[in-house]
Design a protein that fits this description.
- The complex is a heterodimer of chains A (191) and B (735).
- Helices cover 24% and strands 33% of the residues of chain A.
- Chain A is of the alpha+beta class.
- Chain A has an 8-stranded mixed β-barrel.
- The longest helix of chain A is centred in the N-terminal third of the chain and has 42 residues.
- The radius of gyration of chain A is 18 Å and the shape is globular.
- Chain B has 15 helices and 37 strands.
- In chain B, the strands form 7 sheets. In chain B, strands 1, 2, 4, 5, 9, 13, 15, 16 and 17 form a 9-stranded mixed beta sheet that branches.
- The two termini of chain B are 35 Å apart.
- Classes of the chains: A alpha+beta (191), B alpha+beta (735).
- Chains A and B meet through helix 1, strand 3, strand 6, strand 7 and strand 8 of A and helix 3, strand 37 and helix 15 of B.
- Strand 7 of chain A pairs antiparallel with strand 37 of chain B.
């Protein structure tokens, strides 16, 4: 019995540790990414946050209304999303739609507080900030709806995360999409 | 909330002292061994444990609670936005199950097809089905019949607007109705109104097409799906319409974008028995066949005398790939000429085919520009085929040739600033460049064409240095996934000069209309590549053919020689012929008597002439429809060349007379008596088309954006709490 109990304790504790490890990793990684981002900006090249990383910071997303900001990584494969939101599309040149996806449990949890009219700011590697304003938020079903990347207006920023925010199911079909439109380019370099 | 409440209650009962007799005997020793350790601190440990478990319970409740809070909020606001999602946000398969049955009869050079589409309504509401589908690019649709239960309603041709009104009136008054209209020469929309709940309505479409013949091989392709088209230009509507269910919105360059871009889904997303087609080919070639094959599907062939019956071996096929059928006469028996005649409505129609012989080769140095489509629609299998095809093209270059490689998606990009000599060094660079090509972005063809056709122009001054004349050719490899074909043909015509444009169709469902017409306007030829295994044969033929046109300045003289005869023979100005290509002519008003003479110039400058005895003509069917379609095409061409509006009235008159579908005429069939009482609602169902096999959707799927963290934490906490509970239970049981 006690052996069984021990097994149960160990497995539960392992689950708990793994469960807590994910948000912890998300927080710690962002700190490391901040350093890598500063380095990317200084050198104007993609610099990896740690030597074995398969992704690198490409932008900094800031939500002034929520007092939150985070480093955005290249690509959206599962591993990189654990460290920061990933840029699915865009960022090539000043024009073009940008799509950023992030985990609802970690970095993109604040998305639920965004409302139409809120400001979003995106800093590219050259230090310039592009300002967006939230246009609408909506819920889509990922099984029946796709992002038609060829039809997106050029000045769009899409933030995508899973929905509902408090769901336990990591494989749910619903997505929460925040669509923002750019405002006049803010050429003042950020710090 | 409820769940956690039950849990806490449950845990509470676990903390109650349980009767000792409940414990299994084997464990008594263990607990008594442990007993001496804890005996002293028992009360303290117990209170600590109790405290810990309480805290765990609270934590668990915090984690589990949102799960239930969320269930009530739902996602009501997503209603209406989603294409196949109902008001409660649940995924729904389309209520209509689509079946297709092709029955193709080939006789001579014309294949006559009967296509029956069945719409089975699996819901308990009345439905209207809308389905966008492709037909062969040379198809002339000439009949529509609707079957509801036992009743058969024969459709008729009406001018497009009129047909639309007739259909809408019938739909709104609750009667069975069906209509088919042409969106592009190879894209059609069918609408079926008032499909009763649980019932099936079938729509039979009759069309005919010309059998392809090249290098002694007959070929027929039956498209089953369409590649999602790219719509250049700015959206006309400013709302976020382009989100809605995958239907594109009209743009400045493609005003009919919304009617030619159905929702494209994966095979797995439709009902198991939907989007399946059965096919049956009956080939009466008129000469013994050596081989019947298909590069796209496995075949089951049966021969009965001179007639061959072909079916796909797998029975029903999934409609995500063009069905291509090839048949071949015995070597040495390939037809070199053929004449068919038909008398219809008091007029004589003749169809003649002549295959010029092989010409001796005089190879001139070439200037070859390869243009490769690297847009998003090419992603997957297509880009691999295109890369492979391009590598093969590079191998055909000989020293002394010049070449360049241009790739395009949203923007064109050229390997060299201007065409370079085919030195080993340059070729190695090109090979590397080609192997690195990736498919992504839009399909902006116009700038790429300009770059390819104009770069030749720039090279002229420099080329004058080496005196040898060069044959200038452009090889265009694409899936033709564009919606603005017409504008592109105009551009090719304007920029072509003395060059030739050859098109290579890539992928499992290319836009063959674009390929054929672009090659025609570009005075070249078109080749389709089915899959990687089938790539070398067709391309080798193309690259051989490209080395020199076999016959130029072709003149066709029908007996009689009257002006009206010349006006009524099509194509009016036959283009140049390449190796293995036949010359096809159709004429009205010439009886099957006398001789047809065809002449042209050979590459060496010699004259070629052949005459054909028309009395040998075999009787054929459907020639008048082929003639009418050619006439309509020539009227449309004329309008394009003169940049004018086509003669709508003449085309409508011609189409109605021959009972043909055209850009300005549609078919409509309406039942006489209403079937649906107007109280019950009619729901519209836009049937999706399948994504062509091997291609990746241009539309991005939403990524997976949740972690298992909350689940893991909840499970971990729950497990720990259970442990504490069990431990305490044991302790109480055996102090």
């Amino acid at each position: 019995m006690s052996r069984l109990l021990l097994l149960l304790i160990t497995s539960s504790a392992t689950l708990l540790v793994f469960g807590l490890w994910i948000p912890l990793k998300a927080v710690v990684a962002q700190e490391l990414l901040e350093i890598a981002w500063a380095e990317s900006q200084a050198r104007q090249t993609a610099s990896r946050p740690w030597p074995w990383a398969d992704t690198w910071p490409v932008a900094k997303l800031s939500m002034p209304d929520l007092g939150d900001s985070m480093i955005v990584l290249a690509g959206v494969h599962g591993e990189s999303l654990a460290f920061g939101p990933g840029q699915m599309m865009g960022g090539r040149g000043p024009q073009g739609a940008v799509i950023i996806a992030g985990h609802r449990d970690t970095h993109f949890r604040p998305l639920k507080y965004l409302e139409p009219g809120n400001e979003l700011r995106l800093q590219s590697r050259d230090g310039s900030w592009q300002s967006y304003r939230v246009h609408e938020t909506r819920i889509v079903d990922s099984r029946s709806e796709f992002i038609d990347t060829r039809q997106l207006p050029e000045d769009t920023l899409l933030l995508v995360t899973c929905y509902p925010f408090d769901s336990m199911d990591p494989g749910g079909p619903l997505r929460y999409v925040v669509e923002a439109r750019s405002q006049q380019t803010d050429t003042v370099a950020g710090l | 909330m409820m769940f956690s409440a039950i849990l806490s209650k449950h845990s509470a009962s676990l903390f109650c002292p349980a009767s000792p007799s409940m414990a299994p005997h084997g464990y008594r020793r263990v607990s008594s061994q442990m007993g001496w350790l804890s005996a002293r601190r028992k009360p303290r440990v117990q209170s600590i444990m109790e405290g810990v478990s309480l805290w765990l319970a609270v934590l668990l409740m915090l984690f589990v609670q949102p799960l239930y809070a969320e269930a009530s909020t739902g996602s009501e606001d997503s209603a209406g936005v989603l294409h196949f999602v109902n008001a409660k946000g649940q995924w729904q398969e389309p209520a209509l199950v689509l079946g297709s049955d092709f029955d193709v009869r080939v006789s001579g050079l014309i294949a006559d097809s009967r296509l029956v589409r069945t719409f089975r309504n699996t819901s308990d509401q009345w439905r209207e089905g809308v389905f966008v589908f492709p037909l062969p690019e040379t198809a002339s649709v000439y009949g529509l019949t609707m079957k509801v239960g036992e009743r058969t309603i024969v459709g008729e041709v009406q001018p497009r607007e009129e047909a639309k009104k007739t259909y809408e009136k019938a739909r709104d008054s609750g009667r069975h109705a069906a209509t088919v209209e042409q969106q592009q020469p190879n894209l059609f929309t069918t609408r079926v109104a008032n499909i009763p709940p649980g019932a099936t309505v079938s729509v039979e479409l009759n069309y005919q097409q010309l059998v392809g013949y090249q290098d002694g091989i007959f070929e027929l392709s039956v498209p089953t799906t369409l590649i999602p088209r790219y719509m250049p230009g700015e959206p006309l509507a400013t709302s976020s319409q382009q989100w809605k269910g995958g239907w594109a919105v009209p743009t400045t360059e493609v005003p009919d974008a919304d009617s030619i871009s159905p929702f494209t889904v994966d095979v797995a997303d439709v009902a198991v028995d939907s989007h399946r087609a059965s096919l049956r080919f009956t080939i009466d070639a008129g000469l013994p066949l050596a081989q019947v094959s298909s590069p796209s599907h496995q075949l089951a062939t049966e021969q009965d005398g001179g007639v061959v019956t072909v079916k796909p071996q797998a029975g029903n096929i999934v409609m995500n790939r063009d069905f291509v059928l090839r048949w071949q006469p015995f070597a040495g028996q390939e037809p070199g000429a053929a004449v068919f005649q038909q008398r219809w409505d008091g007029e004589d129609y003749l169809l003649a085919m002549v295959v010029p012989g092989r010409a001796g080769k005089t190879r001139l140095p070439r200037e070859l520009t390869f243009v490769i489509d690297t847009s998003g629609s090419m992603a997957g299998e297509s880009i691999r085929q295109a890369r492979e095809a391009l590598q093969m093209g590079l191998e055909t270059l000989a020293p002394g040739d010049r070449f360049n490689v241009i790739q395009f998606n949203s923007q064109p990009h050229a390997l060299f600033v201007q065409p370079e000599m085919a030195t080993p060094n340059n070729l190695a660079r090109a090979r590397h460049y080609v192997s690195q090509l990736q498919a992504d972005g839009g399909t902006e063809m116009a700038p790429a064409l300009t770059m390819a056709l104009q770069s030749h122009g720039r090279g002229v001054g420099e080329l004058a240095e080496d005196a040898s004349p060069r044959v200038r050719q452009v090889v265009f490899m694409t899936d033709g996934a564009v919606g603005n074909e017409s504008a592109l043909f105009g551009q090719i015509r304007r920029q072509l000069g003395d060059q030739r444009l050859f098109t290579v169709a890539i992928g499992s469902a290319p836009n063959r209309h674009f390929m054929r017409e672009a090659a025609r306007w570009g005075r070249g030829s078109y080749t389709a590549v089915q899959d990687l295994a089938d790539i070398s044969g067709p391309l080798a033929r193309l690259f051989t053919a490209m080395e020199a046109p076999v016959l130029t300045d072709i003149e066709v003289n029908w007996p009689g020689q009257s002006v009206s005869t010349q006006d009524d023979s099509f194509p009016q100005r036959p283009g140049d012929l390449f190796q293995g290509e036949p010359l096809l002519q159709v004429v009205r008003g010439v009886p099957a008597a006398g001789e047809l003479s065809v002449s042209g110039r050979l590459p060496g400058g010699g004259k070629w002439q052949q005459s054909l005895d028309l009395q040998q003509a075999a009787s054929g069917t459907g020639l008048h429809r082929y003639w009418a379609r050619e006439k309509i095409n020539s009227l449309l061409d004329e309008a394009r060349v003169q940049a004018q509006e086509p003669d709508k009235e003449q085309i409508t008159r011609l189409a109605v007379e021959h009972s043909l579908m055209s850009p300005y005429t549609s078919f409509v069939a309406v039942d006489a008596t209403p079937a649906r009482d107007l109280e019950s609602a009619l729901l519209k169902d836009n049937l999706p088309t399948l994504l062509p096999a091997g291609s990746q959707s241009g539309m991005t799927r939403y990524p997976q954006t949740a972690t298992a963290a909350p689940l893991l934490v909840a499970l971990g906490l729950f497990g720990l709490m259970l442990c504490v509970a069990i431990a305490m239970m044991q302790r109480r049981a055996y102090p």
